[in-house]
Design brief:
The protein has 706 residues and is of the alpha/beta class. Helices cover 30% and strands 20% of the residues. Among the domains are: 186 residues, Rossmann fold, CATH 3.40.50; 152 residues, 3-Layer(aba) Sandwich (Rossmann fold). The chain contains 21 helices and 26 strands. Strand 24 and strand 25 form a beta hairpin. It is elongated, with a radius of gyration of 30 Å. It starts with a strand and ends in a 12-residue tail after the last helix. The structure holds adenosine-5'-triphosphate (ATP) and 6-O-phosphono-beta-D-fructofuranose. The site of adenosine-5'-triphosphate has 20 residues, from helix 8.
């Protein structure tokens, strides 16, 4: 494929020509300073830009400040083996001796735009037709083949001067390139990766109105709000804008290609197979599955069923499958466009701004967080615990906590924690309980898995098995944490009312909210326009607020995670003021992690707990019994011989974690506990503290059934 950025008559950039290439992966979409420049060997690139263009003083405020921007010919030697198109812009700022009254300062930075193009059918299919777009005539809606999405904005390489936004970006990069006080000429280079902009092109590769297109849509992996909307919009765009009538749904994921009949889909109101109102429902009406991917069988089925545009909705696993399909299609030299729409409720595809359904999930999570907060606030020593989805990435947990502002501690897979010990979650929860009489914790499902490994005698998650797609099955951190927190809080003398909510599946099964719904539409249309143009092996995404197309390897190159060093996590900490729940190496070892043994971990659970400058040692003897009503009753015996019931809960198999044997009660411990409670300042708190000493029933009165 050749993308030609042809110069318009008044263009400052002359011609940038980009030769065909295959997979193109050149860097990282984030800040230019953090770009990693990876070059694949099988690509060829020629980029030429000539002519320094003059400042016309009109295009933007920066231009009128005598800024000169020119395009430069890129050095062959530097890029000859690269698979990227390089367009270089040089920004210069000169201060003359006369102006400054000092030495000449001449600063320049060159900015390289690396075009990360996506494969095109033309790369392996000779004599591909190029037909005019059948419906869109409005030039404003047609994407120019020279439009690319870069880190912060859209650059049109045919264009004239960068717009003011682009100038600001150049300005920022320029500023970063120079050390303060530099007085000598210095040139730095910055690289910006850009992607083809999404949208309808003036010419397409299929004769869609004459029935050449036979499209298939498949959805794979877990559910996510908006899947039905994406399917509907794929059909709508094919049907309305390209006149396609042969559109088929593939049932139940990849395996449906070769094991199920296709389902004809259409946009006709009330007709069988109509998707017109599908967006109102959660889930995917096509069905989805994990596992069952066999590239040969899938591509055989594509050939056999004469499909030539395949739309694949799914997460990173699905994208790997789609890439395998694409490679097989290319190997067989088929005229088949493979187009993806990234779907992941975890928001863990780093290359794109966010995934559809994520906002909805965060919004829906508010309901559970609010409920847990109300429960916690409404009970003495109330602790709310909410588990949210997030296998490797804690985005839902972090964003939901940020949005709620009621969450005291948010635990995510990216940030290690311990429950017990002076720096543990329990100590912090105890602190918040002392301050506020209630506390709220949110935990992402992938958090704390290593701790549970230790709890389970070093057996790793891997040994628990994998799902059909090969994903490791996780232990239930919610139930585990509920148990651990209660145990630790009891040990330091706090009787807590713990309420645990697990809304994970109900969050992902709902239809999308308004903003996700619009987002689904744009992603789906981007995929259709890209496929109709002849791109294949790509995904549709939004990068820095602009819709674009990314090659599949690029899209899934990085798993998106919450970086504890970066802004998202910092904002959380700034908002809820939660400390790090992670001790030093010694402490980690004491918890049986990073070299320690599980028995070390168990022992450490009985260690004295330091809260601020106080040390609180476990002081109760906790026992577990079962009531005749089938409830588990956790109680402890006090020094004075009275029995205190902490909790009674319906027994479920996963909630029957072992009870540790805490250290025996001593008078000193009891004394410390009372001292701790006396720290509560208000009269009411003191009354409540007194009450603690005399209460022998829990609120449900389950003592009757012991
Ligand atoms: N490495 C791979 N190569 C080919 N196919 C794969 C690969 N990994 C997963 N798949 C296939 O992709 C499909 C979906 O994968 P998976 O269950 O991992 O979900 P996912 O796409 O990652 O979505 P989710 O984010 O919901 O987990 C399955 O049919 C699986 O067999
Ligand atoms: O649907 P399943 O197989 O229970 O998988 C649940 C997983 O799917 C996701 O929703 C998406 O990957 C994860 O958050 C979660 O770990």
């Amino acid at each position: 494929m050749a993308i030609l950025a042809t110069a318009s008559s008044h263009s400052r950039y002359h011609t940038a020509s980009v030769s065909p290439r295959n997979s193109a992966i050149h860097g990282h979409r984030q800040h230019p300073c953090r770009h990693r420049n990876r070059r694949s060997s099988n690509a060829r690139v020629h980029a030429s830009m000539e002519e320094e263009y003059a400042n016309d003083g009109e295009s933007s405020p920066l231009w009128s400040q005598s800024r000169r921007v020119r395009a430069e010919h890129s050095s062959e030697s530097e890029y000859e083996s690269a698979d990227m198109a390089v367009l270089t812009t040089r920004q210069e700022e000169g201060v003359s001796e006369e102006d400054s009254g000092t030495n000449t300062t001449s600063r320049s930075a060159s900015v390289e735009y690396l075009l990360d193009d996506v494969p095109h059918l033309r790369d392996w299919h000779d004599n591909l037709e190029s037909l005019p777009h059948p419906s869109i005539k409005n030039p404003a809606h047609i994407v120019d083949e020279g439009d690319y999405v870069v880190a912060t904005t859209v650059v049109n390489f045919h264009g004239c001067a960068p717009n003011s936004e682009e100038c600001t970006e150049l300005e920022n990069m320029s500023a970063m390139s120079f050390k303060a006080g530099d007085s000598n000429t210095e040139q730095k280079s910055q690289k910006i990766v850009c992607f083809p902009r999404a949208g309808p092109r003036a010419n397409i590769a299929f004769d869609s109105v004459r029935g050449e297109v036979r499209a298939a849509i498949v959805s794979c992996g877990g559910l996510c709000p908006g899947m039905n909307t994406v399917i509907r919009e794929l059909v709508a765009c094919l049907w309305n804008q390209y006149g396609v009538r042969d559109i088929f749904g593939v049932k139940n994921g990849f395996r449906g290609f070769y094991s199920e009949n296709l389902v004809p889909l259409n946009m006709q109101p009330n007709a069988a197979g109509s998707v017109a109102t599908m967006h109102r429902n959660g889930g995917t009406f096509l069905g989805t599955s994990r596992g069952g991917f066999d590239v040969n069988k899938v591509v055989d089925a594509i050939e056999h069923r004469r499909l030539n545009t395949v739309f694949v909705i799914g997460g990173d696993g699905t994208h790997k499958g789609a890439q395998a399909m694409f490679e097989e299609v290319r190997r067989r030299k088929l005229k088949v466009a493979i187009a993806c729409v990234p779907k992941t409720i975890d928001n863990d595809i780093a290359a794109i701004d966010k995934s559809f359904g994520f906002d909805t999930a965060v919004e829906e999570a508010q309901r559970s967080i609010r409920a847990a907060h109300v429960e916690a606030e409404s009970a003495p020593m109330g602790v709310g615990l909410v588990k949210l989805m997030g296998r490797h990435s804690g985005f839902i947990a972090v964003h939901s906590s940020l949005a709620s502002r009621d969450v005291d501690a948010t635990l995510i897979p990216e940030v290690p924690f311990v429950v017990s010990g002076p720096n543990g979650v329990a100590a912090f929860v105890a602190q918040r309980l002392m301050q506020n009489d209630h506390a709220l914790v949110v935990v992402a499902e992938g958090a704390g898995q290593d701790l549970m490994d230790v709890e389970h005698n070093g057996k790793s998650n891997d040994e628990l098995g994998r799902d059909a797609s090969g994903n490791i099955v996780f232990r239930d951190v919610g139930l585990w944490l509920k148990h651990e927190l209660r145990k630790e809080l009891n040990r330091i003398g706090l009787d807590v009312n713990m309420k645990y909510l697990d809304p994970t599946y109900s969050i992902r099964a709902i239809p999308p909210n308004a903003s996700d719904s619009v987002y689904c539409t744009l992603l789906a249309h981007g995929a259709v326009h890209g496929a109709m143009y002849g791109f294949s092996g790509f995904t549709s995404g939004r990068v820095n607020e602009r819709h674009c197309l990314l090659s599949i390897p690029r899209a899934i190159e990085h798993l998106g995670v919450v970086d504890p060093q970066m802004r998202t996590y910092s904002r959380l900490i700034e908002s809820n003021n939660q400390p790090a729940f992670w001790g030093d190496d010694h402490e980690r070892q004491a918890h049986g992690l990073g070299g320690g043994t599980s028995s070390d971990a168990n022992n450490s659970l009985r260690r004295p707990l330091v809260m601020g400058n106080r040390t609180v040692t476990p002081h109760r003897h906790t026992t577990t019994s079962f009531s005749s009503a089938g409830r588990r009753v956790v109680s402890d015996r006090r020094a004075d011989g009275t029995q205190h019931i902490h909790d009674s809960i319906a027994v479920t198999h996963s909630d029957e974690a072992d009870e540790d044997e805490p250290a025996p009660i001593s008078d000193a411990d009891e004394h410390r506990r009372k001292k701790l409670l006396r720290k509560k300042k208000s009269k009411e708190d003191e009354i409540w503290a007194e009450g603690l000493n005399t209460t022998t029933l829990d609120s449900s009165g389950t003592i009757d059934s012991i």
